[in-house]
Amino acid sequence: MISAYTGTQVRAAEEPLLAVGLGDVLMQRAAHGLATAVVRELTARGTRLNGARVVVLAGKGNNGGDGLYAGAFLAARGMRTTAVLTGDAAHPAGLAALERAGGRVHRLGDAALPELAAETARADVVIDAVLGTGAKGGLRESAAELVKAVNADRRGVLVACDLPSGVDADTGEATGPVLPADVTVTFGAAKAGLMADPGADYAGRVLVVPIGIEEHLPQAPLRRLEDADIAHLLPHPPRRAHKYSRGVLGVVAGSEDYPGAAVLACRGALAAGVGMVRYLGPPSVADLVRQSCPEVVCSTGKVADNRVQAWLVGSGMGPEDHDQLERARDALDCGLPVVADAGALPALPDTLAPHVVLTPHAGELASLFQRLGGGEDRDAVEAGTLDAVRQAANRTGATVLLKGATTLVAAPSGSIFSQAEGTPWLATAGSGDVLAGVIGALLAQAGPDVGRFSEVGIDADVRWAAIAALGAALHGRAGRAASEAVSGGPIAAGGIADALPEVWGKVSMLSNDGARKRNSHSQPLR
């Protein structure tokens, strides 16, 4: 599991080492890791190291010092290294090391900006080391103008030092012009702002360089499930399972206007391991569900008449679908886990619980804020997704999943998961309905046992957020697999559901426990 921290937490973890005079040691470790990453990037691209052109954009603080020391290491390897100092000062020891190694130095105020921008844009590697984790407000004046000019004509590899300048380490908000990195080399731990949009837009691949502060870090406020975590959390039916023990999901979705949403939600659920799906809705929609998914048990009755372990409500429902909204209210009131898509917003009670998972996109979350008495509009949500999803969970008491290129899941306790396995082709009608089906199926299979969550360090009160993150991870991987099956081309929502079982099988085999359980189903006769 990847753990990410705020810049404040990372700086606090450095304090015990700084107090005993190890500041230069930390900087040297960071710079060496940064330089090593640059060498690997150039080597992977087939660029000859000796004579390669490197430009370090160096601010006046410790981030600039990291970049200058890295530049010194690279100059010593035979690279033509130039530092462009963007402020009125520079880290003295780092600057001296660069000059001793043969690096050149330009001061932004002393040289013509167009010439500096042209030299920077032509470099084989640009190291962005202007602003660090403590900076607020983005690049200013001539530094901002330089970055704009470089952005317009950059050709080489862009490596960000700790984080792209202008990205907030705590929130991921981006201010002013930002150089989009091919790779961000971050020190000590991943920063939360690199794992939330829009910061993730600029981060590229994120590499973490250990520098010796790790034992001083607190509990991570943001985490990302990786292969082993996903494999461990996937439910596996025991040998004597039956359809009811595998979980039954009730689905209240679809309408005369959007009947396909019910079909896609049911298909997502069926592909995600649930033992049975019970559908409740209008007769015409129920007929379509029967035709498309003959495994689904359809009814036009009431929520109370159905024994299930979890509910899915809201997909494809409008404010005029009164019977469906009444069913959604009943499902939300019954005390079972519920995944509630945007169509259920009018049915939400004033107070929710963590076992209710809301799944809005940015526009729908803005609408929810308005319903709660005001708050961010869509632009504000998209500009600060991490703060928005945390605020939504806090204000509703529910688990909130904010859909996007990076999907964030917030528990009311403040814990957040970030998943980004998908492809832009997932932005297609019905994709969210399939996601709701996947999460609903996982909720129905959760059961009371929290052991598999605690085994990967997830507390019981956060398990609902972890289940939603697991669903987002599977959904994203299925979308990518479906696209790869057509050579990276576009996909429809049904293709996501079709790809899910194979994705599930592949990831489950990454776990020894999953392999053991799967193999136990087919023991040879003796």
Spans where pLDDT lies below 50 across 5 or more residues: 514-526
Class of secondary structure makeup = alpha/beta
Strand order of the largest sheet: 8-1-10-19-18-17-16-15-14-11-12-13
Mean pLDDT, to the nearest integer, reads 93
Portion of residues within helices: 40-55%
- Which shape, going by the Cα principal axes? elongated
Kindly, what is the distance between the CA atoms of the first and last residues, rounded to a whole number of angstroms? Answer: 41 Å
Kindly estimate the percentage of residues that lie in beta strands according to DSSP: 15-25%
The number of helices is 19
Q: How many strands, which pairing sense, and closed or not: the largest β-sheet?
A: 12 strands, mixed
Number of distinct beta strands: 19
Radius of gyration, rounded? 26 Å
Task: Please describe what this structure looks like.
42% of the residues lie in helices and 15% in strands. The protein is built from 19 helices and 19 strands. Helix 12 (362-371) crosses helix 14 and helix 17 packs across helix 18 (493-508). It has helices at 7-19, 23-44, 62-76, 92-100, 113-122, 141-153, 199-203, 227-233, 259-270, 283-292, 322-333, 362-371, 378-383, 385-396, 431-446, 451-454, 463-484, 493-508, 512-519; strands at residues 2-5, 53-58, 80-85, 104-107, 125-129, 157-161, 183-187, 190-191, 205-209, 222-224, 248-252, 276-280, 297-299, 310-313, 338-340, 356-358, 399-402, 407-410, 416-419. The chain has 526 residues and is an alpha/beta fold. The strands form 2 sheets. The protein has a 12-stranded mixed beta sheet with strand order 8-1-10-19-18-17-16-15-14-11-12-13, sandwiched between helices.
